[in-house]
Amino acid sequence: MTVVTGNDRLHQQLQAGAEALALDLNEGQIGQLMDFLALLQKWNKVYNLTAVRDPQEMMTHHLLDSLAAVAPLRRHVAALVGEGRGAVRLLDVGSGGGLPGVVFAICCPEVDVSCVDTVGKKAAFIQQAAVALKLRNLHGVHARVETLAMPFDIISCRAFASLPDFVNWSRSALAAPHGVWLAMKGKHPEDEMATLPADVQVFHVEQLVVPGLDAERCIIWMKPV
Ligand SMILES: C[S@@+](CC[C@H](N)C(=O)[O-])C[C@H]1O[C@@H](n2cnc3c(N)ncnc32)[C@H](O)[C@@H]1O
């Protein structure tokens, strides 16, 4: 008789989710995502990284939710590389326990990902995850995003702030002239979009479907004009 453990079930769910999202992930990447889930579970008790405590809920609400943004991100990265941009740098703002930043670093090894958070222990957790998962393209940064001035090609966020606050606070870290913002949102944020600064343009609203999650999700892509 084969015994199916809770971990096996989560592994199967992750694999099925990646397939539903048409994501080409190798076994190493699936393994890193499972290891990241285990790290989140383990250190959440100490560092208070996320209000989500149940491993099953962490899979759907954190991992699969973040994975839903990977194909759109890969498309944008491919376009940047096609324009002749070398190493693509991404900043994930208010990354907390590393969402979506760590998932992006695992799934897009060619992208250099920095996760910034004002809470020191969260940035330290990202550094720890980078070592444990052997992710040389992942960095934890302890700072307020408003203080960063290094140029990033893509600045992402999930569950961070309103769109106007997100772009205003992170603007000095956006590379000119090609840098873009990738904001992961739930319901289409019409009110927030209406109050964006005049020199910030929404150039694409991309609907997302998260496997196993019956909820509205979208990416708001923005750029300075
Ligand atoms: C609600 S959590 C979201 C965490 C993660 N992105 C997620 O989706 O689970 C927001 C995070 O933003 C961080 N934060 C708030 N203001 C910030 C700022 N000005 N610069 C950087 N991080 C900030 C908080 O410490 C917190 O970890």
Automatic annotation (TrEMBL):
SUPFAM superfamilies: S-adenosyl-L-methionine-dependent methyltransferases (SSF53335). It catalyses: guanosine(527) in 16S rRNA + S-adenosyl-L-methionine = N(7)-methylguanosine(527) in 16S rRNA + S-adenosyl-L-homocysteine. Specifically methylates the N7 position of guanine in position 527 of 16S rRNA. GO terms for molecular function: rRNA (guanine-N7-)-methyltransferase activity. InterPro entries: rRNA_ssu_MeTfrase_G (IPR003682), SAM-dependent_MTases_sf (IPR029063). The lineage of its organism: Bacteria, Pseudomonadati, Pseudomonadota, Betaproteobacteria, Burkholderiales. Its EC number is 2.1.1.170. The keyword Kinase does not apply. It comes from the Bacteria. GO terms for cellular component: cytosol. This is Ribosomal RNA small subunit methyltransferase G. Its main location: cytoplasm. It comes from Acidovorax soli. Keywords: Cytoplasm, Methyltransferase, rRNA processing, S-adenosyl-L-methionine, Transferase. It holds the Pfam family GidB. It is found in: Cytoplasm. S-adenosyl-L-methionine binds at residues 94, 99, 145-146, 158. It is an enzyme of class 2 (transferase). Belongs to the methyltransferase superfamily. RNA methyltransferase RsmG family.
